[in-house]
Amino acid sequence: MNKNELRKKILNKRKELSNEDVLSLSNKIIDLLTDTAFYKNANYIMTYIDFRNEVKTERLIKKSLEIGKKIIIPISLTKSKELLLSELRDYDNELTIGTYGILEPKKEFIREVSAEILDLIIVPGVVFDKRGYRIGYGGGYYDRFLLNIDKSVPKVALAFDFQVVEKIDEEKHDIPVDYIITEKGVIKN
């Protein structure tokens, strides 16, 4: 199965999940994440905001803000296919529907930060293999972004167990994540 077929198959499977299943599985995944040393030691956490039945990140974001961690949200710049990083301080009041239908900070709440401050990156994706390689949505935003990230910064994927396959044919520009967290546990790559 090629990347596009695999992406489509897993997206369809994810779409079939009920809201209850997404929430219940997401809560298990977030609990496993917040129990890790790399989460506990992180001060600046970059995370995606979920959409279309991705692992839900709202609880992670709110909990992190409550305990004093800084949350950094990516904004997709469609012309340059780059990610602009912005600090989020209030999940309920600072977001609006943005590029690709994903929640992004409203213009007045964009607080641009440098990727150099990050000490944990939560990476979205559709399919992951057991070595940490991923298939995203096809825009290449994260592949380009991760090229310039210090290798010591943990890159973590949150995924439902069915999103993890044995092996994906990686390309030379692909950068694997260091950990995949599913409802069944933490996979270290």
Task: Give a short overview.
The protein is of the alpha/beta class and 189 residues long. It has a single domain (3-73, 116-188), classed as Rossmann fold. The chain is built from 5 helices and 12 strands.
How does this structure look, described?
It is a single chain. The protein has 189 residues and is α/β, with parallel strands linked by helices. It has a single domain, classed as NagB/RpiA/CoA transferase-like (Rossmann fold), CATH 3.40.50. The chain is built from five helices and twelve strands. The protein has helices spanning 3-15, 19-34, 37-40, 58-66, 141-146, and strands at residues 44-46, 70-77, 82-88, 95-97, 103-105, 120-123, 127-129, 134-135, 155-158, 164-165, 179-182, 185-188. A seven-stranded mixed sheet has the order 3-2-1-6-9-11-12. Strands 8-7-10 form a three-stranded mixed sheet, with helices on one face. It has a two-stranded antiparallel sheet with strand order 4-5. A hairpin with a 4-residue loop joins strand 7 and strand 8 (134-135).
